[in-house]
Amino acid sequence: MKNKYSILLALLALIVVCSSCKEDPLLKEAREFALKQGEVGVYEKDKTKPVFVYDEDKHQLAANPMQFMCRIQTDDQAKMLQMTLDKQPTLAATCKLSVKSKGVPSIGSQCQVEVLKIEGDKVWLLDHESYMSFIFYYPQQ
132 near 107, Cβ under 8 Å? Predict the structure, then answer.
């Protein structure tokens, strides 16, 4: 009986090791890139400049944590980015992210994102298809 448990544990360990070896290297690189970013906004892995990020001197930042929404906009509202999650973000969960923008390069309107990290009032998100990353402003209540 003890031998059966040892074999089962060894097989489970082998499955875990093999599954981690098969991780898409581009996805791994995108995760690492996303976690290095620090400002609320949108990033593309292969771009030297972010798509659109919050700058305290140029933008207003607002959030509605009850509706899982955050928004960055210029004072004149010529540029705007609004991100809304379908549920409360929890670490390692997958959420649907809806994006509305104005005056900002095309980002797309919806994607599935992985919650990579939650720290302070920020949530790091990654879209596995486009490798775009988002830092979502989410002040805790």
Answer: yes
Task: Summarize pLDDT for 82-99 with one digit per residue, the tens.
Answer: 999 999 999 999 999 999
What integer best gives the mean pLDDT of the chain? 88
Would 132 be classed as within a structural domain?
A: yes
Among the listed residues 119, 88, 112, the one whose alpha carbon sits nearest the alpha carbon of residue 98: 112
Q: Indicate whether 101 belongs to any domain.
A: yes
Q: Distance between CA atoms of 50 and 68, rounded to whole angstroms?
A: 23
- Residue for token pair 């499955």: 15
Range of the domain at 106: 24-137
Q: How far apart are the first and last CA of the chain?
A: 51
Alpha helix locations (H) across the chain?
A: 2-21, 25-36
Q: Is the pTM of this model over 0.90?
A: no
Query: For residue 75, is it within any domain?
Result: yes
Rounded Cα–Cα distance for residues 135 and 18 (Å): 31
Q: Answer yes or no: is 56 within a domain.
A: yes
